[in-house]
Every structure is written in structure tokens, then in C-alpha cells.
């Protein structure tokens, strides 16, 4: 049985941005062979497992090796820290893929939300642009809530990492931050509710595993305000209504991703209507077998 292996990007104050392979408790620096995530995704076309083996088999003993725990810091030029595991990739998102999400969108909509019921049942899924790779917040970074919104929530999601031929090479943990009051006022405000500074975060690395169908995995979130848990919830990816191949087909229809792309697959966890994030809240999202994403909250 293969050990779980993640492709990661890290910052080290002595060496700058590096590409690494995280396995067990160490990160092996492979920047000399894999200068960017984009380059590795391009190399994986047609034979994902061979590209993974290139990273993980017979690692050169001369490569620098770091204890993984040294990167568990908030971003600072003085300490090592995790970067989001993307560079030139766009991040897209699928909406209303869980029944709970459909119900929540209808609850928040001022007009009753018939548009969400219709897209939930439609053949064509809702897909929207979320972020450029350089905008994405990493593990232990700070996610943003809009200063002109009053109802802000995290959206814990399974994120698929996809190469330029729309082959899934792995997965990570995603947080699709959302301003529910802005989208609820009018669905045409979706870009403002979803696309803003620090509105997207991804886990510490890409769990390298080619897949053709959604795995059935529990997703859990815990939100702490100072020392108090103010919300926790759980969902399972088995509740995603859409088939993975259909989402990928529509994502790639009339669209090319030469550097690869990340697809957030929707959320099945919705906090109660009276809940809204505040500055300095701590959001922890865990997907069993894939990883944990921790972020504090700031106002942007």
C-alpha cells in the first residue's frame, strides 16, 4: 500500500519559495526537478502514476529534507510556512451540488431562490471562477470577510486538482468563503459575494491520487471564537449530487487550462442563519485522509 504523499509549496526564509514532497513527517525539496506546480501538472498528462512515481521513487539523497512541522506557522518572512499548493492554476467552483446547499441558498434569497432549485435539478451544473492561483491563501494564512457584508461564512469543500487534459491528479481541502447576504440580495451579485481578497484557501498540499469518481469522505468544520467553539458541522462527499466526470466535462467545455485547474466541488455544511464569521475567528476544516486546513479570519 502506497504511503499518502502530498505535493507542496513552501516558503523558507533562507531559500525562498520551494516545491516539495511531503511524506510521513518530512518534506523533501524537489525544486531542481519540479520548478513549479504547473510544470508537474503538465508532465502528468497521460500517465499520472508515472509522474507521481517520478516525485516519490528513488528520491535523490542530496535533496534538502525538512521536518514538516517547521512550516506550521502563520505566514511571515522570518519563518518557514506553507504556501497554497498552486501557482498559475485558476480555481473554479461548483455550486449547489449538495441538497443542503440548495436549501440554504433558497433560505437566504430575497426572492425565494427558485433559481437555485432549478440549477440543482438541471443537467448543466453551476460553475464559476473563484480565484487566480496567486490569490489563494494557504494553511495557517488568513482568510477574508468583506467589510461591506454582514453575513459571512466559510464553505468547506473537497477540491480536485486537475491537469491540462482534465485528468484528476489529486485532492486537497478547500474553503470557498462566501458573503451570504450579498448573494441573497440578488443572484447576479454572486461574483461580489465570492471573489474578493483572501476569499479562497486551500490545504497544505495536493494529496497525489488519480481518481475517476468522488471518494466517500467525511468533511468536518470547527469554528472557534477565542477559546469557544461557536459552530461545528459535518457532511460527506457521498452526498454530492453531480458525477465527477460531468463536472469536468462542463468545466472543460469551450475552455482550456494550460497550467491545470482546481475545482471546488461545493459544500454540504451550512451554519445557521444567525451565524456570521468575525475577525480573529479560527476556521478548521478536515477531510479524512486528505488533510486539515486552518485559517484565522480578517476583515478585507
Describe the structure in your own words.
The protein is of the alpha+beta class and 300 residues long. The chain has two domains: 79 residues; 210 residues, Fumarylacetoacetase-like, C-terminal domain (Fumarylacetoacetate hydrolase, domain 2). The protein is 18% helix and 35% strand. The protein is built from seven helices and 19 strands. Strands 1, 2, 3, 4, 5, 6, 7, 10, 11, 13, 14 and 17 form a twelve-stranded mixed beta sheet that branches. Strands 8-19-18-15-16 form a five-stranded mixed beta sheet, with no helix packed on it. The protein has a two-stranded antiparallel ribbon with strand order 9-12. A hairpin with a 3-residue loop joins strand 1 and strand 2. The longest helix has 10 residues. It is globular and about 60 Å long.
Query: How many β strands by DSSP?
Result: 19
Structure classification: alpha+beta
The H-level CATH homologous superfamily of the largest domain, spelled out, is Fumarylacetoacetase-like, C-terminal domain
Instruction: Give the CATH level 1 class of the largest domain.
Output: Alpha Beta
Q: How many angstroms separate the termini? A: 45 Å
Tell me the major beta sheet: 12 strands, mixed
Low-confidence regions: none
Q: What is the CATH fold-level name of the largest domain?
A: Fumarylacetoacetate hydrolase, domain 2
Counting structural domains, the number is 2
Pattern of helices and strands:
EEEHHEEEHHEEEEEEHHEEEEHEEE
The CATH level-2 architecture of the largest domain is identified as: Alpha-Beta Complex
Amino acid at each position: 500500500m502506497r504511503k499518502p504523499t502530498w505535493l507542496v509549496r513552501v516558503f523558507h526564509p533562507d531559500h525562498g519559495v520551494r516545491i516539495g514532497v511531503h511524506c510521513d513527517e518530512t518534506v523533501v525539496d524537489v525544486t531542481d526537478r519540479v520548478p513549479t506546480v504547473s510544470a508537474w501538472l503538465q508532465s502528468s498528462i497521460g500517465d499520472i502514476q508515472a509522474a507521481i512515481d517520478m516525485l516519490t521513487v528513488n528520491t535523490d539523497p542530496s535533496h534538502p529534507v525538512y521536518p514538516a512541522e517547521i512550516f506550521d506557522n502563520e505566514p511571515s518572512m522570518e519563518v518557514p510556512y506553507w504556501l497554497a499548493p498552486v501557482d498559475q492554476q485558476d480555481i473554479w467552483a461548483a455550486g449547489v451540488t449538495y441538497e443542503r446547499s440548495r436549501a440554504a441558498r433558497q433560505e437566504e434569497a430575497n426572492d425565494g431562490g427558485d433559481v437555485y432549485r432549478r440549477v440543482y435539478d438541471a443537467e448543466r451544473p453551476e460553475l464559476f471562477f473563484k480565484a487566480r492561483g496567486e490569490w489563494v491563501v494557504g494553511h495557517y494564512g488568513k482568510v477574508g470577510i468583506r467589510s461591506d457584508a454582514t453575513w459571512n461564512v466559510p464553505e468547506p469543500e473537497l477540491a480536485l486538482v486537475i491537469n491540462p487534459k482534465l485528468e484528476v491528479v489529486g485532492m486537497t481541502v478547500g474553503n470557498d468563503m462566501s458573503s451570504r447576504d450579498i448573494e441573497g440580495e440578488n443572484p447576479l451579485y454572486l461574483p461580489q459575494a465570492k471573489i474578493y481578497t483572501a476569499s479562497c484557501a486551500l490545504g497544505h498540499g495536493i494529496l497525489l491520487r488519480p481518481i475517476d469518481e468522488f471518494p466517500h469522505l467525511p468533511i468536518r468544520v470547527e469554528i472557534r471564537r477565542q477559546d469557544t467553539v461557536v459552530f461545528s458541522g459535518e457532511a460527506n462527499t457521498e452526498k454530492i449530487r453531480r458525477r465527477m466526470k460531468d463536472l469536468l466535462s462542463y468545466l472543460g467545455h469551450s475552455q482550456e487550462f494550460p497550467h491545470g485547474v482546481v475545482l471546488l466541488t461545493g459544500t454540504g455544511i451550512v451554519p445557521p442563519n444567525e451565524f456570521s464569521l468575525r475577525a480573529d475567528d479560527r476556521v478548521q476544516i478536515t477531510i479524512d485522509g486528505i488533510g486539515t486546513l486552518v485559517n484565522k479570519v480578517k476583515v478585507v
